[in-house]
Amino acid sequence: MTTTPTVPATPPRRVPRRTALLLAGVLAIPLGGGVAAPAAARVDAGNSPGVTCTGAPDGFASVNALGQNGTTGGAGGPTVTVTTAAQLASAAGQAGPLIIRVSGRIQVSDMITVVANKSIIGVGTTAEITGGGLQLGSTTRPGNNVIIRNIRFTDAEDDSISVTNKAHHVWIDHNDLSDGYDGLLDIKRESDFVTVSWNRFHQHSKASLVGHSDNYPADRGKLRVTYHHNFFDGTDQRHPRVRFAEPVHIYNNYYRNNALYGIASTEDAGLMVEGNYFENVAHPIHVGYADSAPGRVVERNNLYVNSGTPETAGTVVEPRTYYPYTVDSPASVPATVTAGVGVGRVCP
């Protein structure tokens, strides 16, 4: 197998944002009702041949819990199309279910608050939120039952997407995230039942954090998150870095040229890591990191190509106690993930 050279010992300097790859495809907005279990995977004719995807969330976002029947977003509400930051902020903060179509490039400042029962869906292949990001909920207005799909996020002043303030049932799918200031996608402050699928992370250091800080044990027993079929493409760290959560299920993701590390489990978090492909990752899995106490990791059936040895420890709650799933062969992951991630590939 031909591999690219080993990653440098120190992380590369941040470089200017480059134009993200535009992927051909079609867009359809999901309008279905409650989700009791994952939708069956299928091949969508609008995508590249052989790319399997689903039109409804799977993983933790599909679980019936906390009074929510899976994740349905704005289904059942009206549809609006937004082209400016003011329109997006107004729609995202509106009470009740709403499907928000993001058309073209929208320049925003800081974070736009998204409240409950919203689907925020990019139109075609050119939807972009730049300069700021989306924050799910506030301390007084929850961001539960939210879907974010098919959007390019660039140059955020803070996080590109922040799932916070006890938001639950969130599906983040088929987005392209790059070149922000802090985290591209952070999940914290007692949020729960989240699925992160088919996203590309690139041109950045801190990809995705789960758990607010070492001094926020209120996250214990929350933060149940599924990561599957994401492409961590040259990002340095946090793919994810996890505190307190259990289980965090990480499967069939493609890790390439991650200079600091792939995954880190800290502060007694429990991570199930399976069927992933690590390429040129010197430290694919850490147990404990920096000043954070060790967590627990069970790893199985991963491939480590020109990569280091993973660290593991302890036992972890099986994700199958929450939802059914199928793990693809890890050897197929680079081709499947690179063909399917990002914008322009949203299945109906």
From TrEMBL:
<feature type="signal peptide">
    <location>
        <begin position="1"/>
        <end position="36"/>
    </location>
</feature>
<keyword id="KW-0456">Lyase</keyword>
<dbReference type="Pfam" id="PF00544">
    <property type="entry name" value="Pectate_lyase_4"/>
</dbReference>
<dbReference type="InterPro" id="IPR006626">
    <property type="entry name" value="PbH1"/>
</dbReference>
<keyword id="KW-0119">Carbohydrate metabolism</keyword>
<comment type="similarity">
    <text>Belongs to the polysaccharide lyase 1 family.</text>
</comment>
<dbReference type="InterPro" id="IPR011050">
    <property type="entry name" value="Pectin_lyase_fold/virulence"/>
</dbReference>
<protein>
    <submittedName>
        <fullName>Pectate lyase</fullName>
    </submittedName>
</protein>
<dbReference type="InterPro" id="IPR045032">
    <property type="entry name" value="PEL"/>
</dbReference>
<keyword id="KW-0624">Polysaccharide degradation</keyword>
<dbReference type="InterPro" id="IPR012334">
    <property type="entry name" value="Pectin_lyas_fold"/>
</dbReference>
<feature type="domain" description="Pectate lyase">
    <location>
        <begin position="75"/>
        <end position="284"/>
    </location>
</feature>
<dbReference type="InterPro" id="IPR002022">
    <property type="entry name" value="Pec_lyase"/>
</dbReference>
<dbReference type="GO" id="GO:0005576">
    <property type="term" value="C:extracellular region"/>
</dbReference>
<dbReference type="GO" id="GO:0030570">
    <property type="term" value="F:pectate lyase activity"/>
</dbReference>
<dbReference type="GO" id="GO:0000272">
    <property type="term" value="P:polysaccharide catabolic process"/>
</dbReference>
<keyword id="KW-0732">Signal</keyword>
<keyword id="KW-0964">Secreted</keyword>
<dbReference type="InterPro" id="IPR006311">
    <property type="entry name" value="TAT_signal"/>
</dbReference>
